[in-house]
Amino acid sequence: MNTIRQMLSISLLLASFRFATPLILAALGGIFSEKSGVVNIALEGMMLIGAFAAVYGSALTANPWIGVLFSMLAGLIFAAIFAVVCVTFKADQIVVGTGINIFASGVTIFLLQILFGVRGTSPRVMRLPFLRVLGVRFNPITYIAVILVPIVWFIFFKTHWGLRIRSIGEHPAAADTLGINVNLWRFSCILISGILAGLAGAHLSIGDGSAFVREMSAGRGFIALAAMIFGKWHPVGAFGAAMLFGYAEAIAVRVDFVFIPSELISAIPYVLTLVVLAGFIGKSIPPKAVGKPYYKGEK
Amino acid sequence: MNNFVDKVKSILTNLALSLLSITIALIFGVFFILLTEQSPITAYSALYEGAFGDFRAILNTLWRSTPLILTGLAVALPFRAGLFNIGAEGQLLMGGFTAGVVGFYFTNLPAFIHLPFAILAGMIVGGIWGGLPGFLKAKMDVHEVISTIMLNNIAIALTINYGINYFRDTGRQATPRILQSAALLRFNDMADHFIFGKIPFIEIFEQPGIRLHINFIFAIITAIILWFLLFKTTLGYEMRAVGHNPDGAEYGGINASKGVILAMFISGAVAGLAGVGEALGTHLSFMAGMDAGHGFTGIAVALIGLTHPIGVIFGGLLFGALAQGGLEMQFAGVPSDIVMIIQALVIFFVASLQVLKVYLAKRKAKGGVE
Fold first, then answer.
1. How many folded domains does chain A comprise?
2. What is the DSSP string of chain A?
3. Does some domain include residue A155?
4. Which of A38, A89, A272 to mutate to test the interface with B (most CBs of B within 10 A)?
5. Highest mean pLDDT of the ranges A283-287, B30-34, B62-66, B366-370
6. Domain with A206 in it: what CATH number?
7. Which one of A166, B83, B164, B182 is at 20 to 30 Å from A234 when CA atoms are compared?
8. Does the reported pTM lie above 0.95?
9. Rounded mean pLDDT of A88-92?
10. pLDDT reading at B368 higher than 60
11. Assigned domain for A284 exists
């Protein structure tokens, strides 16, 4: 009884928003890149470098907002590397995505030593202030994430741009014959996903805390990917999934269960995603051309 | 005969691309070394000394290569069947955890039962962890990349987060120490072994600091078996046919589902063996962090090794040498994490240079028409 009361408490719901923030942002980023036909498993690495850059920017200027700017810039740079190799050089997107993730782990630990002289946790820096709206208190990135959901939905389903991106992801050759520059759009979509993933990283390091810890993204990029799939590549669906996964993380931290060990609750998002993919709860189908580099002139 | 020349040419082109990628990656690495205000020559010579400087360094390079060769094989085999296994990390964890638990839990078994039992259990559980995405792919059309990512994270929750907490008896983030009857033979114990001890000069391994254990031999044998399986058996031919053209293979009477599931099961078992070796040979328990990203490094290893089982041995040795030499570099004042950066760069360049290969092939095809 006590467990159920704990599970439904307001504070837990609010905590879910906090845990869901990076998932929402990265999942929206994932939607941009996947809708344009590029598998982005590099979200994890982009988030990690974003988290580091945010701390560095904040340490450098004692202004957390500069940190936020740095995080988006870092995500953008990593996304640009990813885009050059995958879109320009047509390399395998999954191979390169893995490369970006390894690169981000290596570079962040390396820079921790060069810039801060430590190997594990950075010194504490200025964190983002809390913003009180309608009686609840979150850091600004949480509000940004929530506001972005309808905006991204609007872009994808109510504008020409969204229609173009979706057509590129489903049938690039057809889009090409209509005069759409497939590779340019893909490149741009990857950059957007990098900015969003970088911002997600800033939430982890200077929004939710005030330091960078090595490997602090801890698989959240992959959970965001899961949220995107669970939400069937739809911004609102991904938001719902991210909230569900954020809630799972929150109850794992806060509620004592008698029947399920709390360590296993963290696996729930992944199990649910597998179940959805296998088609047990409404099949989740990816954009048709996802994962294939586009060569002009091929069918 | 012409066919043979073509084959040699293609192997040489691929080899050249691999070497080129490594060279470019090392050159880019210089930039990162300069950031540390150290001399790149000092850093790279420390790296070389650390990896190949003396007998002990070389053997420890082999020791570090062992899990990488195995995870490299676990990526390479499905790659030939048209599948991308980025789940070696989870398969390694499941295999290592199972072997670690069997290793301490059964207290009354003689070594000749206990050790094979622990190894097999680890490989089978790893195999199931690999076979599951194969099954989902074959029967429900779930992309193996996504399912293996999910299974990696489920494996982390099951083994590192839950499993260790369930079994551990000390403050260490590990399962209890395995019994001697489940331990893999170490090279520096070989002189006392009742069979290996008879090999002449075996006592040269008997010196402190050598951590190489027999799983290295198992890894080489696995590579040879997989080479044989892929290129000398009908099953291997079928797997490669499915990888080359799944619809064509199906039309030709090959059961594509069977190939997919088997390739993933075998791959999972091989990654499981990597975990078994780390648990029963290197750490003598299942330890948090013992996976150390080997599953992901395996992707780089497989790519550098041209996804050929024998090539993978060399890819594994290269990355093993980088890991072992990196320690020496750390002593010279250059963060060993540069090794991780170089590894990522190798992946970028190998992947990018594929486009060069496509270009070369296209030019050749055009030449043929004219």
1. 1
2. -HHHHHHT-HHHHHHHHHHHHHHHHHHHHHHHHHHTT---TTHHHHHHHHHHHHHHHHHHHS-HHHHHHHHHHHHHHHHHHHHIIIIIS---HHHHHHHHHHHHHHHHHHHIIIIIS-SSBPPP-PPPPPEEETTEEE-HHHHHHHHHHHHHHHHHHHSHHHHHHHHHHH-HHHHHHTT--HHHHHHHHHHHHHHHHHHHHHIIIIIS-SS-BTTTTTTHHHHHHHHHHHTTT-HHHHHHHHHHHHHHHHHHHH---SSS-HHHHTTHHHHHHHHHHTTTTS-----TTTTPPP-TT--
3. yes
4. A89
5. B62-66
6. 1.10.3470
7. B83
8. no
9. 86
10. no
11. no
- Residue A264 is part of which domain span? 2-123+140-277
Residue B295 in this model has a pLDDT that exceeds 70: yes
Q: Tell which A residues from 165 to 224 touch B, by Cβ distance under 8 Å.
A: 219, 222-223
Task: Report pLDDT for B370.
Answer: 40
A89·B355 Cβ contact <8 A: yes
pLDDT per position as a tens digit, A117-149: 888 899 999 899 888 887 788 889 999 999 999
CB contact under 8 A, A41 and B86: yes
Q: Find the residue in A nearest to B359 (Cα).
A: A89
Contact at CB, B341 and A266, closer than 8 angstroms: no
Whether residue A242 lies inside any domain: the answer is yes
Nearest-Cα distance to chain A for B152, in Å, is 9
Give the pLDDT band (50/70/90) at residue B1.
low
B352, B353, B355, B358, best to mutate vs chain A, most A CBs in 10 Å: B352
Find chain A residues with C-beta within 8 A of B350's C-beta.
95
Tell me which chain B residues have a C-beta less than 8 angstroms from the C-beta of A113. Answer: 335, 337
Domain assignment present for residue A299? The answer is no
